[in-house]
Each structure stands twice: as structure tokens, then as C-alpha cells.
């Protein structure tokens, strides 16, 4: 599980759904939450939580994309498997992990030192306090 | 005429405290794993066991407050046992007649009809199917015209498809009779289907009371719901570890990192987080 310490910057609510914006290491993050709005306000400390399997990796991504969490990074290492591979990407003082198919690692020619963007859909981003 | 439960008592060396008011016509589920004292609490409500402190009352009638005690035969409770406890030497109709009060307001035929047993009035328990025996046990409890219906895992002896089918008819019966009911269950689906309130019992004697949604779908992380389960299988795979968790009667399989898996063991209780927006639903019928 990936965890990022962040600061809440905005909270928009609608009955049953809310969109939370947060900032960490100068990057903007978004989380779409189902249910009642949490009792949080801008400036509150939150932890963004997302599974390794919910992280996508893009290389040379151009144009617009609906995914709200789109963070640049450089691959630090890859733990390869036959079907799945685990990609390590430094973020601040910590490391984000992405589990993607080994076929995608080969197709994108991913390896240590390659600049990529890692992406997470807002509805896959959990928030803990 | 609410059911007022404000008491504590020792169960298997643990002090269990109960504090809830159940409005008339509502159903309270006692939910938790085996051995935490659900059936003991049900027996306490019936009057088979005493409380240590506090009070049990139904409407204005005190059932137990340490000094005043209403014995079981004067509490007007209908009890459905896990194994149904039917009389093998009585027909279905006879069992109902035996359970009826001296001046019944409803006929035996009414209860047979209500529980779908109209064609089986002359059948003996051993001639009935499992589902029919369950309905007979329920009909017998209803025929006693109780103020309070106590159901001790009434569907646990049945297979899954029959259990689901009878959950529907039981929900209909409870709505129709407007009987205040206390249900013992370790089946999450049954609790959500039948109960408006739940008292969750944990192995350490702790209790949680509220609606099924408040108690059983806790949001440990905002936007995610948490269910409590138990690890059945940890299977290391490449890169990630496959974990199978039992939640009630169902299982969930997921992938987690080896680091996270290293902190788990088979049989361990875990919280399973469900991302509300990502859950997919498929109609089964």
C-alpha cells in the first residue's frame, strides 16, 4: 500500500460524493470519496492511500487525460516477475510502488533511470487522517 | 412498548455490557463470531438466565433488575431454537395448538397459512423438509402470540440457497406481524436483510450498538468502507502475495505486497477496505 503525507487544499461536496484536493511535495493530488463528506478543512494533514495495483505508468504521455493524479518521476528499480512487475519510483523521501504487467514494462521499455509519469484515478485514492 | 436493555453480565469470564432501546416492531441482531455469548444473551432476554447489574424491561414491565424478576413463562416470548426443537410425536397443527395461549386471537390454520405450511398441517416433523421444519418452528413461536420473538440463528442449519429464500419470507413475516424481534446471527447478509439495529459482540467482551451500516460498515478511511474478516489463505506469488479472506459466509481474494503479507497469518482477523466507487455489482437472479 502506498501512503503519502499531504495537506488538504480544498474539499468540494455533493450529496453522497465529495472531491478532495491535497498537496504533497509541490504536487496536486485528488481523491473522490463516496459517502458523507469527512469533517476536514483546508490546511488539515491527511494521508493519501492507494494500492500498488492502482498505479499506472505512462511514458511520453501527450495530450489530455481524465486521470487527476498525474505525477512525474524517475524509475529507481524494477522487480520483474513472469506476469507482473513491481516498479519503484522515488517521491520526496519515500518510494511509490506500481504493480503493472511485465508485458507493459517491456512495451514501454521501462528500466531504472527512465523518466515516466505515474497516474492514479481519483476514485482509487483513499484518504486517512 | 420498547424493549429496554441496560444491563451487564459475565459471559465466559468476560463482562458484557448492553445498552440499547429497541422500538416496538423493530429487529435487533446480536452479531459476532461463535463463542462470544450471543445465545447466552438471548437466553438472558428469554429469562432462562439472570443479569448481574442493570435492567431488562419490555414496555412498563420490568423483566429483571436484580430484585424484581419476571420468570420465563410470564414474559410472553416466542423462541426459535437453532435446531428448531420440534416435538417429534406431534403433527404440525398439533404443535401450533399446543403453543397457543388459552384464548388465541388467531387460528392454527392462520399460522400455517402465514408460514406457507397450509398443506402440511397433518405432517410430522420428520416428514417435513429442512425449510418446512424451520417455518414450523417459526409458526410455533408466532402461534404463542408473543410480545417478543427471539430467533437463535434460525436459518443456520439450512443450505445457502434455502437460507436466502427463507430470509425473504422471514423479512416479510416480521414486517407483517410487527413483532419486536431479537435475532442471533453471524451472517452479515442476514443482519442487513432483517435487522434495523445491531449489537456487535467481540471476543474481548466489547460491544458496539447502532444501525447495521453504522456498526458493520465502519469507515476506517474516508471514502472506503471496512468489513471485518479472517485470513484463510496466504499464497506468495511473484511480486505480490495473494490473500483470501473470509467475511461472513463469503470470501474475498486480493493482492497485497510481500511486506504487508509478512505482518499477517492464517486465522488472523483483518479489516477489509472497500473503495465505494470501485466496487462492481452483478445481479445474480
TrEMBL record, chain A:
Superkingdom of the source species = Bacteria
A single Pfam family it belongs to is TOBE
**Keywords for this protein:** Molybdenum
User: What InterPro entries does its record include?
Assistant: Mo/tungstate-bd_C_term_dom (IPR008995), Mop_domain (IPR004606), Transp-assoc_OB_typ1 (IPR005116)
Do you know which PROSITE patterns this protein is assigned to?
MOP (PS51866)
Q: For the Mop domain, which residue ranges apply? A: 64-129
Q: Which GO terms describe its biological process?
A: molybdate ion transport
Q: What is this protein called?
A: TOBE domain protein
Gene3D superfamilies in alphabetical order: 2.40.50.100
Q: Which SUPFAM superfamilies match?
A: MOP-like (SSF50331)
UniProtKB/TrEMBL annotation, chain B:
What is the organism field in this record? Amantichitinum ursilacus
**What are the alphabetically sorted keywords of the record?**
ATP-binding, Cell inner membrane, Cell membrane, Hydrolase, Membrane, Nucleotide-binding, Translocase, Transport
Q: Where is the ABC transporter domain?
A: 1-228
MF (Gene Ontology): ATP binding; ATP hydrolysis activity
Q: Which top EC class applies here?
A: hydrolase
Q: Specify whether Cell wall biogenesis/degradation is a keyword of the entry.
A: no
State one Pfam family annotation: ABC_tran
Q: What's the protein name?
A: Sulfate/thiosulfate import ATP-binding protein CysA
Q: Which EC number(s) are documented for this chain? A: 3.6.3.25
Amino acid at each position: 500500500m502506498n501512503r503519502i503525507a499531504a495537506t488538504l487544499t480544498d474539499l468540494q461536496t455533493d450529496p453522497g460524493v465529495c472531491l478532495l484536493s491535497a498537496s504533497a511535495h509541490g504536487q496536486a493530488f485528488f481523491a473522490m470519496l463516496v459517502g458523507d463528506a469527512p469533517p476536514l478543512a483546508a490546511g488539515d494533514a491527511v494521508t493519501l492511500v492507494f494500492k500498488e495495483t492502482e498505479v499506472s505508468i505512462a511514458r511520453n504521455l501527450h495530450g489530455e487525460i481524465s486521470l487527476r493524479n498525474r505525477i512525474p518521476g524517475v524509475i529507481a528499480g524494477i522487480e520483474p516477475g513472469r506476469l507482473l512487475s513491481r516498479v519503484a519510483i522515488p517521491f520526496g523521501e519515500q518510494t511509490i510502488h506500481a504493480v503493472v504487467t511485465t508485458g507493459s514494462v517491456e512495451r514501454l521499455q521501462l528500466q531504472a533511470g527512465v523518466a515516466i509519469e505515474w497516474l492514479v484515478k481519483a476514485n482509487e485514492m483513499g484518504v486517512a487522517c | 412498548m420498547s424493549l429496554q436493555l441496560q444491563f451487564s453480565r459475565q459471559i465466559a469470564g468476560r463482562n458484557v455490557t448492553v445498552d440499547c432501546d429497541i422500538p416496538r416492531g423493530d429487529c435487533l441482531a446480536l452479531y459476532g463470531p461463535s463463542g462470544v455469548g450471543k445465545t447466552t444473551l438471548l437466553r438472558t432476554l428469554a429469562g432462562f438466565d439472570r443479569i448481574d447489574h442493570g435492567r431488562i424491561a419490555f414496555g412498563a414491565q420490568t423483566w429483571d433488575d436484580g430484585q424484581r424478576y419476571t420468570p420465563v413463562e410470564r414474559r410472553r416470548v416466542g423462541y426459535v431454537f437453532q435446531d428448531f426443537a420440534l416435538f417429534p410425536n406431534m403433527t404440525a397443527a398439533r404443535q401450533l395448538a399446543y403453543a397457543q395461549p388459552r384464548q388465541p386471537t388467531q387460528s392454527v390454520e392462520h399460522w400455517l397459512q402465514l408460514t406457507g405450511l397450509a398443506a402440511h398441517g397433518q405432517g410430522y416433523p420428520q416428514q417435513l423438509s429442512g425449510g418446512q421444519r424451520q417455518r414450523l418452528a417459526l409458526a410455533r413461536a408466532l402461534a404463542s402470540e408473543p410480545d417478543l420473538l427471539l430467533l437463535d440463528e434460525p436459518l443456520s442449519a439450512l443450505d445457502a440457497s434455502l437460507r436466502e429464500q427463507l430470509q425473504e419470507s422471514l423479512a416479510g413475516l416480521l414486517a407483517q406481524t410487527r413483532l419486536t424481534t431479537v435475532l442471533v446471527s453471524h451472517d452479515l447478509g442476514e443482519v442487513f436483510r432483517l435487522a434495523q439495529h445491531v449489537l456487535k459482540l467481540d471476543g474481548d467482551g466489547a460491544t458496539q450498538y447502532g444501525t447495521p451500516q453504522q456498526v458493520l460498515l465502519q469507515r476506517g478511511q474516508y471514502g472506503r468502507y471496512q468489513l471485518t474478516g479472517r485470513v484463510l489463505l496466504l499464497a506468495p506469488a511473484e511480486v505480490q502475495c495473494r490473500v483470501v479472506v473470509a467475511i461472513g459466509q463469503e470470501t474475498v481474494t486480493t493482492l497485497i505486497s510481500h511486506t504487508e503479507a509478512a505482518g499477517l497469518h492464517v486465522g488472523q482477523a483483518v479489516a477489509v477496505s472497500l473503495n465505494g466507487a470501485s466496487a462492481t455489482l452483478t445481479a445474480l437472479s
